[in-house]
Amino acid sequence: MKRILYLAFFLIAIFIAFSFWMSPSLMGLIPGGKETPDKGITKIHFDTEKKLDIIIPYSDKSKSKELMRLKEVFELDTLIINTNDEYKKIKNIQSWVHSRWEHDGTNVPEKSNAMYILKAAEKGQKFRCVEYSTVTTACLQSLGFIVRGLWLKTKDVDVVNSGGGHVVNEIYLRDLKKWFFIDPQFDIIVLKNGIPLNAVEFQSAIAANEKIEIINPNQEISDREYIEWISPYLFYFTTSLNNGKISNWDRIIGTKRQLTLVPKGVKPPIYFQRLFRIRTNYKTNSIYDFYPIIE
């Protein structure tokens, strides 16, 4: 009987220790940590040589049944019918997605697909930056664009209780052979000398106090306020490897589902907002790993 009790206590102790190792706050049950992230921006640098032997598959998904149905139901073609300019098409789609609902940083939809989110928004539901990115991705993919979600994290994402992350998008323009940043929650695009910037270029321009143009048609937030707001999030950059959604089991066993760009000389984040240990990411310091040229 004693052996059984000792074994039970041992297993319970192991479970508790593992739970704290995975989530210092036990998924928000235990208080502690910083209430808000640090403000401002930090000058950061990256390697300019390829480091990882990883190829993220990007392909035209516009012929998938789900995306074709999305395009038909919401008549997305009508949003781009009057222009052949890819940049204007992207602006039109982003503005349309932005207008579907008001932001709510806590409401998580029952399903994470674009059709469900848009139908729920028609009934008055409001959603997070995550959903703006999800719907924008699907809408642009339905029209043949190569687009990806981009998770931005603050320098202190390990220790803050909330506000440590923001989700946007990056789109690949084949004529320029580059990725560029859009933020559908705010309906924002950023240019420098008329060229759309990716997230890292945006960060570098802010840190160097360079002249940039903020395309901000709805003016829900001023250009200056947006730069002040977004700056802390431009530190760690994460995108999907396009090999499936992240489950709790993936987090436990460390299945690699994402790629994180980490500044040189900086340790990768261990936790996301003290909620869970980050175990599903490859890490790199190379912008060439993170920003592939697509032929």
Characterization of the model:
The protein has 295 residues and is an alpha+beta fold. It folds into 2 domains: 1-31; 34-290. It has 9 helices and 11 strands. The strands form 2 sheets. Strands 1, 2, 3, 4, 5, 6, 7, 8 and 11 form a 9-stranded mixed β-sheet that branches. A two-stranded antiparallel ribbon has the order 9-10. Strand 2 (165-173) and strand 3 (178-183) form a beta hairpin. Helix 3 (86-98) crosses helix 5 (129-142). The longest helix is centred in the first third of the chain and has 21 residues, at 2-22.
Based on Cα principal axes, name the global outline: globular
Low-confidence segments:
none
Head-to-tail CA distance between termini: 67 Å
Chain-averaged pLDDT: 95
Number of helices: 9
Quick overview of this protein structure:
This protein has 295 residues and is α+β, with helices and mostly antiparallel strands. The protein is 32% helix and 17% strand. Strands 1, 2, 3, 4, 5, 6, 7, 8 and 11 form a nine-stranded mixed sheet that branches. Strands 9-10 form a two-stranded antiparallel ribbon.
